[in-house]
Amino acid sequence: MQENKSLDSKKQEEFLWVATFLPLKSWKYVIPFQVMTSKVLKQAKETKGVMNYAVKADFPKKHFWTLSIWKDQDSLRHFVMAEPHATAIKKFTEWAGEGSAFVEWTSSSNSIDWAEALERLKNPTFYYKNQK
After folding, report:
1. pTM, whole model, 2 decimals?
2. How many other CB atoms are found less than 10 A from the CB of residue 117?
């Protein structure tokens, strides 16, 4: 599964990028996670300040990735604290497998770049669950 959605082609100096790696610890969480993901994607489509976003999945491994690009920190903060994302964060503390993490950085680009995101996730800003 892969979805890309460009919401705004407006240029500016720097954008805030956030990439997440979300491995699930059990198959029982896959369907609830997918339901929550669809709600959060709908929220992203309706949120001011999101410049671009994408999701990837490796279902056999129960691994999921998100990549979002934001106009500024305030836009990201508003999204993260609003529903359904706020609930998703709470649920994910239960669903998260080892190595679950996110990373933030800035770039002048607002085009999805999975190679960059995956490379940056090797040194995350935050681990939900520590690596073994």
Report:
1. 0.85
2. 22
